[in-house]
Design a protein that fits this description.
Layout: H1 15-23, E1 28-30, H2 37-41, E2 54-57, H3 61-73, E3 78-81, E4 97-100, E5 107-110, E6 115-118, H4 124-132, E7 136-137, H5 148-153, H6 161-164, E8 171-177, E9 183-187, H7 192-198, E10 207-214, E11 216-217, E12 221-227, H8 233-244, E13 251-259, E14 265-273, H9 277-283, H10 285-289, E15 294-295, E16 298-300, H11 302-307, E17 318-326, H12 331-342, E18 350-356, H13 358-362, E19 376-385, H14 391-405, H15 423-430, H16 434-444
Parallel strand pairs: 2-4, 3-4
Antiparallel strand pairs: 1-2, 5-6, 6-10, 7-11, 8-9, 8-10, 12-14, 12-15, 12-16, 13-14, 13-18, 17-19, 18-19
Helix pairs in contact: 8-12, 12-14
């Protein structure tokens, strides 16, 4: 089973034409017979197995521009790979041109102005290391091996969201190669409509070759996890919801459901306090007073927190995800969560509730393309497994879980956690901003050249 894009027949390419194109590149071009081709086409989700006709590994924006023009002029589908972490596998195509940005890892930090200029091949950990060297950070995600580009373009929900918003809220400018081969700077002053659209509209409008981020002072954080006794899981889940709803901006939280050795559902709560540590200790007192059996919260480097979950997402596994927004954790919703937690098909499979609140929730839904601006939990049903023979069991559990929780969920989905689920779900991902996004799409990509994504259909 693969998702989401069916193979398409593309025009045969003349070898001489390809060689001429290759000579224009500073970076590398890979064909299916070349060493490194299979490694370059691999993505995070092992369910995805596609074979591009060509892979271009650019070194700069001009290489990106040349590749876009070449693909368009020769009728090739274009897939764009940053970190390759997208569960839908949109970073790789069959028969077309794959643009692998992983060699574009340049980053410069201006600590005085508190900005960073970052290329799209960087992973979260790369950018965090560069900014933390100056005691600064920009909001990103929660797994350091994720690519910054896809994460930012889809919104970017992470540990700093309560205090500093989403990743897309902290983009000051971006350089974008559009479908006609132009390299544009998008900002509040230049191409403001494009700037609005790329902050939540995913990869629909072009290939970003650099992001300029706003940075914030972030020193050691008070972070880690608390585990609660299985006999109190239902009570702890309800208490967690009430606690998270009252957290100050500096305290962002997550909750994860699993099972113990006896098959009983359990809950663990993760926290990140980004502020004075003594104030963080006071803010955490109610959670600690509830009676955890394990308390792993301690001061740590922010970059260490960002990498803490990396081992849970090794390469080479099969992945199938479903995502919803939960504004409330009602008794009915908790019943569903606990029932499906008890039936988890593998120990590696995760059920996560990541809280969006504070600064991220207060932004006007129309200020950026990311529309889901309210205090809520993102429920991620994250099935992962090693043996392809177990696919039906894991996919079946995930789909059944999603359908059971749907009556308790708000309409919408976080686009970064969306698989191939059809046009209606894509519309839910962009919400009330969809029509405006479609108008921007029609202006900058009128032929829908950039379609290997959660695709926005053209206005009209």
């Amino acid at each position: 089973m693969t998702t989401p894009f069916a193979p398409v027949a593309f025009p045969a390419l003349d070898d001489a034409v390809v060689r001429t194109f290759e000579e224009t590149l500073r970076g590398r071009l890979l064909r299916p017979v070349d060493d490194g081709y299979d490694a370059a086409r691999a993505v995070f989700n092992a369910m995805i197995d596609r074979r591009p006709a060509l892979i271009v590994r650019p070194t700069d924006g001009q290489d990106v521009r040349r590749a876009v023009v070449f693909a368009r002029e020769h009728g090739l589908a274009l897939a764009v790979k940053g970190g390759g972490h997208n569960v839908a596998g949109s970073a790789v195509c069959d028969g077309g041109l794959m643009l692998d940005l992983s060699a574009m890892k340049g980053v410069s930090v201006d600590p005085e102005r508190r900005i960073a200029v970052a290329e799209p091949g960087l992973l979260l950990g790369d950018l965090d290391r560069a900014t933390q060297a100056h005691g600064l950070a920009t909001p990103l995600g929660v797994v350091s091996v994720t690519g910054i580009a896809g994460l930012t373009l889809g919104g970017g929900l992470g540990w700093l969201n309560g205090k500093h918003g989403l990743a897309c809220d902290n983009v000051l400018a971006a350089d974008v190669v559009t479908a006609d081969g132009r390299l544009l700077t998008a900002s509040a002053e230049e191409h403001a409509d494009l700037f609005w659209a790329i902050r939540g509209g995913s990869g629909n409008f072009g290939v970003v070759t650099s992001f300029t981020y706003r940075l914030h002072p972030v020193g050691p954080v008070l972070a880690g996890g608390l585990a609660f006794p299985p006999e109190r899981t239902r009570e702890a889940l309800r208490f967690y919801h009430e606690f998270a709803a009252t957290c100050p901006d500096e305290l962002s939280t997550t909750a994860g459901l699993s099972v113990d050795a006896e098959g009983r559902p359990t809950i663990a709560v993760g926290v990140c306090w980004c502020g004075p540590l003594d104030a963080g200790e006071r803010a955490l007192r109610p959670l600690r007073a509830f009676g955890p059996t394990e308390d792993g919260i301690a001061p740590m480097a922010y970059s260490a927190l960002q990498a803490a979950n990396d081992a849970s997402f090794p390469t080479g596994r099969q992945h199938y995800w479903k995502s919803s927004w939960l504004i409330d954790l009602s008794d009915g919703a908790i019943d569903v969560l606990l029932r499906f937690a008890a039936a988890k098909p593998s120990a590696a499979t995760g059920i996560g509730l990541q809280r969006m609140h504070g600064a991220a929730a207060r932004v006007n839904p129309g200020a950026t393309a990311f529309p889901h601006r309210r205090a809520q939990h993102e429920l991620l049903i994250l099935a992962q497994w090693d043996d392809p023979a177990e696919t039906d069991r894991h996919v079946g559990w995930t789909r059944a879980f999603f359908e059971a929780v749907r009556p308790f969920a708000a309409r919408g989905v976080y686009v970064n956690d969306l698989g191939e689920e059809g046009a209606d779900r894509v519309c839910e991902a962009y919400g009330a901003n969809y029509e405006r996004l479609a108008a921007v799409k029609a202006k900058y990509d009128p032929t829908n050249f950039f379609r290997m994504n959660q695709n926005i259909r053209l206005a009209g």
